[in-house]
Structures are given as C-alpha cells and as structure tokens.
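Predict the 3D structure for this chain.
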Amino acid sequence: MSRLTALLGRAKEILQQEGLTPLLRRGFGFVAGWFFQYGTYYLYEHTLKQRNGADFIPRLQNFTFKMVSTNQEADELAASGLEFRSRDGTDRDRLDKGAIAFCVFVGRELVHIGWVAMTQQAKDAMKELPYAVDFSKNEACSGATVTSPDYRGMGLMAYGYFKRLEFLREMGRARCRAAVAKSNIASQRGHAKLNPKLYAEARYLRILWWRFWEEKPLT
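Done. Predicted structure below.
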C-alpha cells in the first residue's frame, strides 16, 4: 500500500507541475515496462587496485559524500534534513538486504547515488541484471546508479565509482562487476576513467515472467 501511495503522490506531482500529456506518457511507459523489456549491455570488471583519489574529484563545490549501510543510518540522514529516502521504498529494502549506498549531496539534495552488493541477496534487492558474480570468490557488483539531471557532466559517475571501488578494496574484495546499457554513453565514459576490463556484451529480454539473458565474451 505504501508503494501505491508513493506512486499516486508522484503522479499528482507530475500532473500539477508538467500537465496531463507528460503524465500519460510516463504512465504508458511504466505500464509497458511491466510486460516487456529489452536491452543490450556492456559488462565491465573492475580490478580493485589502489587509485589516486585526486584524479576523481568532481567538478563541483561544497558537496558532501555519505556512505549508507543500514536503515538506521538512513533514518539519521533523513532526520538531519538530507533527502535520502526514495518515494517507493526501494532504498529501505536494499539496505535491509545488505546493499550499501554511496551518495553525494549538495546542500540537502541527493544529486548522485550508486549501490554496491557483496552478496547475492543484496544484488537481487538492487534488481540488477542476471550477469554472473561469484561472491564466494570475493567478487562484488555495483549498479542502480543515478545522477540528478542538473548535475550530470560534472564527474560524479567516476567519483562515485572510485569511492565504491576503494571501499571494496579495503574490504578485501578482488573484483567488482557492473552492467551498462550500450545506449548509456555517459556511464561508459565514467567507467572508462577507472580503466575496467570490458569482458562481455549481453542481451536481455523479458516478456511478462519469461526472461532471456545471453552473454557474448569479448576476451
């Protein structure tokens, strides 16, 4: 019920701020997404080596970085006035399942977020694509990355990934895997700054509950 309430609240905001046509367009896309999804992706593997943090400072002044690993920490952020909580409650479920959020704030506004999973349960909570991650061999994965439109092109993608990879290195992990849509050029550029291994291309197709995933190794 809380998720439905959040969706209705968001629909009301769009209607008031943008009008009926944008609301219908987004509503159609949302409903279509329940039935069908198709995409092509690059699969990256980052080696967790030490990097120079000065190479990844974003072109942004007066920002605050926060790592959030529990719902208690998230509640404390919200109580302090920082806008962390999502409308649909996905952040709460991800934190409950062990995923960790890496956040950049400007003032109270959350302008960039990315997630890390060190277990299959956490990866599932992030709703990542079904690429293989061998958590038993100290691998991890990262995804669910979002940058506010007003702050894109400022290096937050590379900075966020640097912070995530540095954390995983300190935790003793060996590798971090991620999937990036072929159409997402900005994300590909952000990954490239960290010199990952592009190990496969993949296709994903979902029709209702039927799913198809295919990887084509590149090395």
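The longest strand covers residues 36-47.
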